[in-house]
Amino acid sequence: MTSITATLKTKDFRTEITCRQHQLIADEPESLGGSDMGPTPTELLCSALASCTAITLKMYLNRKEWAVGSIHVDVSYDKQAQFTRAIAIKGQLSDQQTERILKIANACPVHKILESANTINTSIKPD
């Protein structure tokens, strides 16, 4: 089970995120009252999909020993609640390999989470 803690201590929107031993900052742009000290929560969600896709593909490519270079994944999210993902892999791939890579990208864990119907159980606990 993954556990993340987000703490907002100040009057603005700068949020400190703790994940295991890692520290991250989320914020809103100045145009929305933030200090633009880090990515917005939506940008973090997009980065989760992009990085998970790249890692999943790299694991697969390593296992198959396909000679490719860098993997570049662009993810955007629009107001209609739709993600758009574009993948670029440096190297020569056949049409069959490209089809397989698309299937593997769609099998990345974050992709599966975002596509599935999720339940969010929320409670308020005393501080």
What does this structure look like?
The chain is an alpha+beta fold and 127 residues long. The chain has two domains: 1-38; 41-115, 2-Layer Sandwich (GMP Synthetase, Chain A, domain 3), CATH 3.30.300.20. The chain is built from three helices and five strands; from the N terminus they run E-E-E-H-E-E-H-H. It has a three-stranded antiparallel sheet with strand order 1-2-3, with no helix packed on it. The chain is elongated and about 55 Å long. The model has no long low-confidence stretch (mean pLDDT 92).
* Mean pLDDT across all amino acids: 92
Strand order of the largest sheet: 1-2-3
Query: Which class do the helix and strand fractions yield?
Result: alpha+beta
How many individual domains? 2
Q: What's this model, at a glance?
A:
The protein has 127 residues and is an alpha+beta fold. It has helices spanning 41-64, 95-105, 109-115, and strands at residues 4-7, 15-19, 22-26, 71-77, 83-89.
List the helices and strands and how they pair.
Blueprint: E1 4-7, E2 15-19, E3 22-26, H1 41-64, E4 71-77, E5 83-89, H2 95-105, H3 109-115
Antiparallel strand pairs: 1-2, 2-3, 4-5
